[in-house]
Amino acid sequence: SYDVRLVISEYTTLVIPHNIISMDVDDARQLLEDLGANVILSRLDAPVVEEGQVSNVVYNVVVSTSPSTGTSYTQEQGAYITLYFY
Protein backbone atom coordinates (compact mmCIF):
# COMPACT_ATOMS: atom_id res chain seq x y z
CA SER A 1 0.00 0.00 0.00
CA TYR A 2 1.31 3.44 -0.95
CA ASP A 3 0.20 6.84 0.24
CA VAL A 4 0.09 9.52 -2.41
CA ARG A 5 0.16 13.07 -1.13
CA LEU A 6 -0.73 15.96 -3.42
CA VAL A 7 0.19 19.42 -2.29
CA ILE A 8 -1.60 22.15 -4.17
CA SER A 9 -0.15 25.59 -3.74
CA GLU A 10 -1.28 28.73 -5.38
CA TYR A 11 1.13 31.51 -6.19
CA THR A 12 0.49 34.87 -4.55
CA THR A 13 -1.09 37.34 -6.97
CA LEU A 14 -1.37 41.06 -6.32
CA VAL A 15 -1.82 44.33 -8.15
CA ILE A 16 1.25 46.55 -7.80
CA PRO A 17 -0.11 49.58 -5.93
CA HIS A 18 0.03 52.98 -7.66
CA ASN A 19 0.81 54.70 -4.35
CA ILE A 20 4.33 53.23 -4.14
CA ILE A 21 5.51 55.87 -6.63
CA SER A 22 7.07 58.68 -4.53
CA MET A 23 7.08 56.39 -1.48
CA ASP A 24 10.31 55.89 0.49
CA VAL A 25 12.06 52.99 -1.26
CA ASP A 26 12.47 50.95 1.95
CA ASP A 27 8.80 51.44 2.88
CA ALA A 28 7.71 50.40 -0.62
CA ARG A 29 9.94 47.31 -0.48
CA GLN A 30 8.49 46.33 2.89
CA LEU A 31 4.91 46.85 1.67
CA LEU A 32 5.46 44.62 -1.37
CA GLU A 33 7.30 41.96 0.64
CA ASP A 34 4.43 41.96 3.16
CA LEU A 35 2.11 41.26 0.20
CA GLY A 36 4.28 38.26 -0.73
CA ALA A 37 6.42 39.68 -3.55
CA ASN A 38 10.17 39.36 -4.10
CA VAL A 39 11.65 42.83 -4.54
CA ILE A 40 14.89 44.12 -6.07
CA LEU A 41 16.08 47.70 -5.58
CA SER A 42 17.79 49.47 -8.47
CA ARG A 43 19.48 52.84 -7.89
CA LEU A 44 19.45 55.07 -10.97
CA ASP A 45 22.23 57.51 -11.84
CA ALA A 46 21.09 61.03 -11.02
CA PRO A 47 20.76 63.18 -14.12
CA VAL A 48 23.55 65.65 -14.80
CA VAL A 49 22.49 69.19 -13.94
CA GLU A 50 24.08 72.17 -15.66
CA GLU A 51 25.68 74.74 -13.40
CA GLY A 52 23.08 77.26 -12.26
CA GLN A 53 20.17 74.85 -12.80
CA VAL A 54 18.17 73.26 -10.01
CA SER A 55 17.79 69.50 -9.81
CA ASN A 56 14.27 68.19 -9.22
CA VAL A 57 15.59 64.76 -8.26
CA VAL A 58 14.26 63.40 -4.97
CA TYR A 59 16.48 60.73 -3.47
CA ASN A 60 15.48 57.37 -1.93
CA VAL A 61 11.91 57.43 -3.23
CA VAL A 62 10.42 55.12 -5.85
CA VAL A 63 10.31 56.78 -9.29
CA SER A 64 9.18 53.74 -11.31
CA THR A 65 8.64 50.01 -11.10
CA SER A 66 8.96 46.98 -13.32
CA PRO A 67 6.36 45.62 -13.88
CA SER A 68 4.45 48.92 -13.84
CA THR A 69 2.15 49.99 -11.03
CA GLY A 70 -1.43 48.85 -11.58
CA THR A 71 -0.16 45.62 -13.14
CA SER A 72 -1.33 42.26 -11.86
CA TYR A 73 1.75 40.39 -10.60
CA THR A 74 2.06 36.73 -9.68
CA GLN A 75 4.91 35.73 -7.41
CA GLU A 76 6.42 32.69 -9.07
CA GLN A 77 9.87 31.21 -8.67
CA GLY A 78 12.45 33.60 -10.11
CA ALA A 79 10.00 36.49 -10.47
CA TYR A 80 10.50 39.85 -8.78
CA ILE A 81 9.39 43.46 -8.78
CA THR A 82 12.10 46.05 -9.37
CA LEU A 83 11.83 49.41 -7.62
CA TYR A 84 13.82 52.18 -9.31
CA PHE A 85 15.02 55.17 -7.31
CA TYR A 86 17.72 57.86 -7.21
Describe this structure in words.
By secondary structure, this protein is α+β, with helices and mostly antiparallel strands. It has one helix at 25-34, and strands at 12-15, 39-43, 62-66, 72-75, 81-85. The longest helix has 10 residues, at 25-34. The chain is elongated.
Keywords for this structure?
three-stranded mixed β-sheet; 1 helix; 5 strands; alpha+beta; 86 residues; two-stranded antiparallel sheet
Tell me the total number of β-strands. Answer: 5
Q: Any low-confidence stretches, pLDDT <50, length ≥5?
A: none
**Helix and strand succession?**
EHEEEE
Fraction of residues in helices? 10-25%
- Distinct helical segment count: 1
Report the principal-axis shape.
elongated
CA(first)-CA(last) distance: 61 Å
Strands ordered across the widest β-sheet: 2-5-3
Largest sheet data = 3 strands, mixed
Q: Name the assembly state.
A: single chain
Q: Average the pLDDT over all residues and give the rounded result.
A: 92
Rg (C-alpha, Å): 18 Å
Strand content: 25-35%
> Which structural class matches the secondary elements?
alpha+beta
Provide a quick synopsis of the model.
The chain is α+β, with helices and mostly antiparallel strands and 86 residues long. The protein has one helix spanning 25-34, and strands at residues 12-15, 39-43, 62-66, 72-75, 81-85. It is elongated and about 80 Å long.
